[in-house]
Specification:
alpha/beta; 25% strand; 8-stranded parallel β-barrel; binds ligand LLP; 21 strands
Amino acid sequence: MNYFKYEDNFLCVDGVKVCDLAKKYSTPLYIYSQKSIEDVFNAYNESIDIPHQVCYAVKANSNIAIIQTMSRLGAGFDIVSKGELARVIKAGGDPSKVMYSGVAKRVDEIEYALEMGIHCFNVESEPEMERINEIALKMEKKAPISIRVNPDVDAKTHPYISTGMKKNKFGVPIERAFALYKHAAELPGIEIIGIDCHIGSQLTELKPFSDALDRVLLLVKRLEESGISLKHIDMGGGLGVVYDQEVPPTPQEYMKLLQDKLSGYNLKLIIEPGRSLVANAGILVTQVQYLKKGELHDFAIVDAGMNDMIRPALYQAWMKIDVAERKNIESGVYDVVGPVCESSDFLGKDRSLPIEQGDYIVQFSAGAYGFSMSSTYNSRPMAAEILVNNGKDYMIRKRDTIDDLYRNEILPVQE
Ligand code: LLP
């Protein structure tokens, strides 16, 4: 379902005109539809009847208002840093539903997570297991863990967002995982509770998920036979969304596959979706500053750059771009580029758009890995973010001020 629709030539979200929000809050501007998030969450949550927990991957969109929305729906959270855990807590999320992934957990981060009482550490290496054990013993606690196994499955996605192959830094190779479980079972600060895997992002087929799960379940059986029984299996995130012509499985199809494969196992299912919950709930609105004739292409120069949305520059990601108001003017073909001084600073190339200087245009599917990957490169203040629900708009992040740019910088007093 599409939550951003043209009504009388104006792009609207929940009945609110995008142009009006752009005028009210200025640009670049992220706008999110709460209803869209709720519907996808419920699609995941209500499509199976085995014990399960949906843990939203905070990195996809870390705004505390988005986290709060998820929390109210009953979500747990997948986090990868102390900062993400602090966000979850700030937003009223329940730390006892938090899974902590990530390859580089520092001592202070592990201490904080143990103190807050998270559900589980997804351990990504042998030395991390030792570190967690030592810290837990010092704190007189037992750390609940699962091992993130790397099943060596090709997720058939962009190499930068593929994580489950031998060449990737993530997880413990599945061949070494058994020995690490046996070792973990001996560690007094460790409580083994589950198994985890995450093979990549923007997957558009079920097969890699299914292959990964088969491999992980073989290990589960072997562990069971050797006296290590697990309470949960965490299949990570990764379900793709429609940016262009992709036909990804629906959350229901994906959940059904998992449910079918898990029948006969006494395991709670955990999943960590990020993108699929928020990507199509968000748009990035920007204003055309200039239309510039080029020798080879014409350029629509807009006020959102790669610092606001880096996906096209980083992954050559194609994201749909259209106007916020449909006018009866002729289309031109443009490379839609931003203000940043880099040739990779583009939102889209070769786009046919009926636009004039001053018009607002919209990049779709921008709710995931948009704002959360933004920066202030070129000393550009970070964008504002708006949540729309029931026809009302709520500012959920103020635009940075110029002062914010150098708030933490210090002019040294030198002799
Ligand atoms: N769990 C773990 C351990 C992860 O590393 C990730 C994403 C997720 C869950 C959520 O995956 P999702 O459902 O969003 O696919 N910036 C890239 C995507 C990076 C994904 C990183 N890990 C992009 O814009 O395409």
